Amino acid sequence: MFGVIMSLLNLTRLYFSNQKIELGFFITFNFISALIFGVVSYFVGKGKIVKEYGEGD
Prior knowledge:
Order of helices and strands: HH
Distance between the termini: 37 Å
Helix content: over 70%
Radius of gyration: 18 Å
Strand content: under 5%
Shape: elongated
Structural class: mainly alpha
Number of domains: 1
Largest sheet: none
C-alpha cells in the first residue's frame, strides 16, 4: 500500500512540474522494485520461521 501511495505522489509531482511522464518506464520501475521487495520480504520471513521452529527438529 505504501508503494502505491508513493507512486501516486510521484506521478502528481511529475505532472505539476511539467516534466514528461513516461508511463511505461514508471510502471516497469515500480514493478521491479515491488518484486525485489517481495522476494526479500519472503526470504526474511521464511528465515525467521525456520529459525523459530527449527528445520529438522
